[in-house]
Amino acid sequence: MPSTYIAGAGMVRFGKYDASVSFERLAVQAGHAALADANAQRSHIEAVFVGHVFGGPVAGQRVATELGLGGLPVSNHENYCASGATALREAWLAIAAGLYDVVLVLGVEKMTDRIKGGVAPDPSDLDAMHGYVMAAGHAMSAQRYMADHGATREQIAMVAVKNHAHSQHNPYAQYQRAISLEEVLSARPVADPLGVLDCSPISDGAAAAVVCSPRGLQRLGIAGRRPEVRAIGLVSGTLRTGLYPLNEEDISRRAGEQAYALAAIDPADIDFVEMHDCFTIAEIVRLEGLGLIPVGEGGRWTEEGATRIGGRLPVNPSGGLLSRGHPVGATGMAQVCELYWQLMGQAAGRQIEGARLAMSYCKGGTVSGTDGASVTTVVVSI
Amino acid sequence: MTQSPLPRAMRDDVMQLDPPQLLGIHCAACGAVTFPKREFCAACGAREGLSTRGLSSSGTVHCFTVVRQAPAGRAVPYVLAYVDLPRDQVRVMAQLDAAPERVRIGLAVKTDFRTGRVDDGQPVVGYVFVPEEEGSL
Questions:
Q1: Which residue of B has its CA nearest to A188?
Q2: Quick one: pLDDT at residue A216?
Q3: How far is CA A311 from CA A74, A296, A303, A319, A356, in A?
């Protein structure tokens, strides 16, 4: 497969923007930042790929028009929280197929004016009819994880403490302050045992990257090194039957195996991970599903600092979804921005020294009876 | 006076009213029970040899949560649980109508069918779990 590179990246600070800051405006800011970082003019861009969930029909075309990129091939990609990374995957495939040399990928979401009380599956979904919300699913995962592995509530809460500590050094994060274990434990309850600080917030934001072939890099006049996209995996959930282990994370196992094979890497060589920590417990069980942490040990790894910057496997140096915020369709591209900045050595106070190989993981949506809807894995190296 | 319409099940692939029970399909090829009903066996993929099966009304709580924040239109708190039906080897997610402090992993529960809403005068019946009555025969 021909090489594909990330030539530049940019995003807006995630957070709560008032009604005057539109979906399109967020996207345009992120898009301009990525274009500038890649030294790209509008005339360099050959196609636009946009991931979003709640933007409405042809939101990508509205954004492209405002970016002055009307007329190009524009496509919209929806895989719930994995939408942004799915858009990147389609861009990667198109470049690998030789169709384009320079494209723009955006993940965008404006949530705070349209989502209240947490995200849920499609209303037609059987679980949704019973009042299932994402927080409830993760709360049951947490309860079962503690019962099965002897993990403690405190160990799970430490995921939030760790990620918020990282976020202090990320100027794009919605929250940029450290929090204490006591704050997490005493926060307003959402779905027992999880409280509001175990949950990623509802956020607005946009993140973007310019993705290129080797010829595209030349066209942009980029002589220095840029992170190479080694693989972008995508799997969907399968129907589970019988009384299976609730935290078996078969979908994560399959996502990981696909990514490692596509990228031809040994997962032990991964220097850090941007993980979809939509809820504290999710970071733990997904890392275990990927095979990066032995099953049942994620709580202890977190408590002992193994997943901190400086630890044996740093996870979410950006602060993760818990701190950076989670504008669902934008998250996958925000993760990719972090991979880019870390591998370029531009992550300042949160820099992981010597990082060469990194992976991000996004999980989007649920379908009743399955172990999820979609998981993307992005493997990048420099 | 017009007669009020008879109650109907919330979804015919999930439950029936006479007698009230959850419905799955049993696969003759591999023996697995798929819930809710599908046109194929979720375990082995077979499309032949499938028969409708009424599921056991008795189960145990595999895990649960007390939901204290939900999208608009749902009163909180409510208990959600994954309930294992050992006879059928099926896990069902539904609300558990019980005081939160009484619920624990392993609690014995049973299905209960009740009107969840009324559509144009027609009662729509759904299902929840309730604790097995302690001390009753």
A1: B68
A2: 97
A3: 41, 18, 11, 15, 16
